[in-house]
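Saturday, quiet lab. Running sequence design on the structure tokens for the scaffold JK sent over.
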């Protein structure tokens, strides 16, 4: 749309591409929300989100929107976006930390659930 309008008046549209790491996605619905938020951004030509790799490929018009503004679109949808770089924490380390956190939450839930379960089963 915007690219076509620029080309119609004689200005070439300069498209750039960025890969973002998206944190917090857990299902296909999350992917849909992130894609919808990205595609609604002014200057975003195309967006493709991958749940398995937790990344988003975004093609946008240079000058119309910045990478920080694209990340803000993702943040407004409720997720965290960072530009992909080698300096960030390795994905396997992040997954291990998340697994450890989930194990702890499960243990806490079991501790609080067990007494209720045994008290209720004792009445039969």
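Result came back. Writing it out in full:
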């Amino acid at each position: 749309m915007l690219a076509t309008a620029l080309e119609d008046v004689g200005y070439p549209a300069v498209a750039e591409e960025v890969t973002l790491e998206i944190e917090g996605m857990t299902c296909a619905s999350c992917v849909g929300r992130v894609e919808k938020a990205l595609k609604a951004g002014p200057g975003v030509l195309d967006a493709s989100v991958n749940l398995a790799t937790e990344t988003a490929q975004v093609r946008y018009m240079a000058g119309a929107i910045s990478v920080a503004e694209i990340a803000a679109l993702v943040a407004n949808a409720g997720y965290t976006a960072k530009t992909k770089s080698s300096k960030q924490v390795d994905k396997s380390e992040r997954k291990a930390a998340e697994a450890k956190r989930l194990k702890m939450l499960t243990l806490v839930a079991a501790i609080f659930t067990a007494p209720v379960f045994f008290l209720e089963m004792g009445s039969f």
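Notes for JK: The two ends are 68 Å apart (CA to CA). The chain has four helices and four strands. Ask whether to fix the surface positions before the next round.
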